[in-house]
Write a structure and sequence with these properties.
The complex is a heterodimer of chains A (305) and B (382). Chain A has 305 residues and is an all-alpha fold. Chain A has one domain (80-303): MetI-like (MetI-like fold, Orthogonal Bundle). Chain A is built from 15 helices and two strands. Chain A is globular and about 65 Å long. Chain A starts with a helix and ends with a helix. With 382 residues, chain B is an alpha+beta fold. In chain B, α2 (115-124) crosses α3 and α3 crosses α4. The chains are: A mainly alpha (305), B alpha+beta (382).
Chain lengths: 305, 382
């Protein structure tokens, strides 16, 4: 075979070229990412393109009119109901991410700075809630917050309230409480990782230069863990805007979010183009909000100097 | 007619420091022990460091020198014993309220701040009035020759520059004591030697007490007024660089500070200040008795540094000489190490000779005579 190859120079050249191609770094890189890339292309990019296309069309009972129109966007942006739902979704997701980060930071800090040899055990314990289904976890909040729930009977038993409160469940606060709990681990992990990267000598240097524990935290540890805070905030904020199960289960009519409206348009209301326009609008607004969050945290970081 | 050069012979016991130091104690360490379970990182150490002194803690890794430095800074606390800085007991005073500042081994430059902000870090809390902060930052940057680099980010600095920033950041606080934890170990050889000179000069200029931790004996010898040599959590010897090098108290100290030839000796006479011994290679020798000399039967150890043995060429003679044979030769550029076997000595002598007279050309196997000064033979405990 070698002899044959030697006898025909052009073939040898192609083989050499093929080897060079296989060994080049960009080619290897593309080969490595291609399964994921194809997967993302087929299951993410294509559906989004379909949704975007639908948002410019019109539903006529069972058929779809494919002439270009901006009518759906006019409805999505001006109809008070959608505007309110969108605002509420943004409010809920911002509040949730704020609370989640505030609650997650001390936990991440404790594990990173005081976890000692048991860091991985602590992290492992944090993942335990994920061993049960998300639905079960949401349901358990129903048990806690409900009319005859744990919280109400507990407060009544202590004599703090006379009759069960209905203010706990089926409103946006219930959604906020449930989501904050559900997303805690997703916020703890990135903050933990960024705290792990903070060189402990820097904290010592700050102490040496006269800072007490609080000052050195505010001037060194917090600014240096900002990347973790940013990613934690984004990781929580982006998916919660579009959450649809939680509001459906614990939100009642006051806790309905934009995703429930989108689901209704694709389901019962059977108006795919309007549902698509609502989706695209939400997507754009989330993008803007995420960008704004990054800028705000960066600005705060600069102020802290 | 060539002008006759008059060279004044320096006084034998001239202090290395050119600036007068006070004899007042700046740091007093009394019976300090630091235990980690059964392990004693520092074992009953006592030490007085004087005001305005450049003091080095020298020893191999794990000898407790860094532990001691961190206890002075307040990052660690003695299990027992006391530490006082400037006459004030440090017990219960946290690191951020001590009159000490530290230059860390890794420099610990804040990566999110630029050079100026790094240097001003400790001043911010003091809320200085009317441009005083800016003035002090500029002054500190000038002291370490970093003028004009104030706006650079920490990530844009070279190793040497980072070290200077760490130095400026500590000096700007005007501490009573500056603690330096192996500050030069991350630099390459050339830069390290340059920084040794600069650090010494800086210390002389600012007059602050410097305490340096190092495992590099040349660094300690070159910069310090006094050195404490430490082994296994204990302080073995505290003295000036010259004293430590020339009159080490034991074999361990002698070995750690460069090469030393050890010679077995038999004690003939011992009195208050001197010791007379018989050796096989060097005959009868009378030397100063070291302070901490403990007689162990009739045996003692003498030591002589390799550079204190000189090759005698041709027919040259000396009052004190030993004869032997060259068995090995190692060339080191400006010097040559000769290993010379002396009849009667169990270990051959190591001799360092500069290469100006052709020591690098002496063939192995050559009979050779070595001159020495009996004062260079020092007695020491084992």
């Amino acid at each position: 075979m070698t002899a044959a190859a030697e006898g025909s120079p052009p073939l040898r050249m192609t083989r050499a070229r093929r080897n060079a191609l296989l060994q080049s770094e960009p080619v290897q890189g593309f080969a490595l990412i291609s399964p994921t890339f194809l997967y993302a292309l087929i299951l993410l990019v294509l559906p989004i393109l379909v949704v975007i296309a639908h948002s410019f069309w019109t539903q006529h009972y069972l058929t779809i009119d494919r002439t270009f129109t901006l009518e759906n966007y006019r409805v999505a942006l001006t109809e008070p109901i959608y505007r309110d739902l969108l605002w509420r979704s943004l409010y809920i997701s911002l509040t949730v991410s704020l609370f989640t980060v505030i609650l997650a930071y001390p936990i991440a800090y404790f594990i990173s700075f005081h976890g000692g040899r048991h860091k991985s055990l602590w992290l492992f314990l944090i993942t335990i809630p994920f061993w049960t289904s998300y639905l079960l976890r949401v349901m358990s909040w129903k048990v806690i917050l409900g009319y005859n729930g744990v919280l109400n009977s507990g407060l009544m038993g202590l004599g703090i309230i006379d009759e069960p409160s209905t203010a706990l469940l089926y409103n946006s606060s219930a959604v906020i409480i449930t989501l904050t709990h559900a997303w805690a681990a997703f916020a703890i992990l990135p903050i933990f990782v960024s705290l792990e990267k903070v060189d402990r000598t820097l904290v010592e240097a700050a102490t040496d230069l006269g800072d007490g524990p609080l000052r050195s935290f505010l001037r060194v540890t917090l600014p240096l863990s900002a990347p973790g805070v940013i990613s934690a905030a984004l990781i929580v904020m982006i998916p919660t805007v579009g959450d649809y199960v939680t509001p459906k289960l614990v939100g009642g009519k006051d806790g309905v979010m934009i995703a429930n409206a989108i689901q209704a348009q694709f389901g019962k209301a059977a108006n795919w183009p309007l549902g698509a326009a609502l989706s695209v609008t939400t997507m754009l607004i989330v993008t803007l909000m995420a960008g704004a969050t990054v800028l705000i945290i960066r600005a705060l970081q600069r102020l802290a100097r | 007619m060539p002008e006759q050069l008059q060279i004044e012979r320096p006084q034998a016991d001239r202090q290395q420091s050119d600036r007068a130091q006070s004899d007042r104690a700046m740091i007093e360490i009394r019976d300090v022990t630091r235990s980690y379970g059964a392990f004693k990182a520092l074992d009953d150490a006592s030490l007085t460091i004087r005001e305005g002194e450049f003091f080095s803690l020298l020893g191999p890794s794990g000898c407790g020198k860094t532990t001691l430095l961190r206890m002075i800074a307040g990052f660690d606390n003695p299990t027992s014993g006391s530490i006082a800085v400037g006459g004030q007991p440090m017990e219960g005073i946290p690191a951020n309220r001590r009159p000490t500042n530290m230059v860390f081994q890794s420099y610990a430059i804040f990566p999110h701040l630029n050079v100026e902000q790094n240097v001003a870090y400790g001043l911010k809390r003091l809320k200085l009035q009317g441009g005083e902060e800016k003035r002090r930052v500029e002054e500190a940057l000038a002291q370490v020759s970093l003028t004009g680099l104030g706006k650079r980010l920490a990530t844009e600095l070279s190793g040497g520059q980072r070290q200077r920033v760490a130095l400026a950041r500590a000096l700007v606080m005007r501490p009573k004591v500056l603690l330096l934890d192996e500050p030069l170990s991350a630099l390459d050889k050339k830069l390290r030697e340059q920084m040794q000179v600069e650090l010494r000069r800086l210390q002389q200029a600012v007059g602050i007490t410097f305490v340096l931790v190092t495992h590099d004996q040349y660094e300690a010898l070159a910069m310090s007024d006094r050195i404490a040599v430490m082994f296994g959590g204990k302080i073995a010897q505290v003295a000036s660089p010259k004293e430590i090098y020339q009159r080490p108290v034991n074999r361990q100290v002698a070995d750690f500070l460069g090469g030393m030839n050890f010679i077995k000796a038999e004690i003939v006479e011992e009195n208050g200040a001197s010791l007379t011994v018989d050796t096989l290679g060097f005959g009868r020798v009378k030397t100063d008795k070291p302070k901490a000399f403990v007689r162990n039967g009739g045996a003692a150890t003498l030591g002589i540094r390799p550079e204190r043995l000189r090759v005698l060429w041709d027919n040259a003679t000396a009052k004190f000489e030993v004869a032997g044979t060259v068995v090995e030769r190692h060339y080191f550029g400006e010097i040559t190490h000769l290993i010379v076997e002396i009849p009667g000595l169990e270990k051959p002598l190591s001799v360092t000779e500069t290469n100006d007279f052709g020591a690098d050309d002496i063939p192995v196997g050559t009979p050779i005579r070595l001159a020495y000064d009996p004062e260079a033979l020092v007695a020491m405990g084992d």
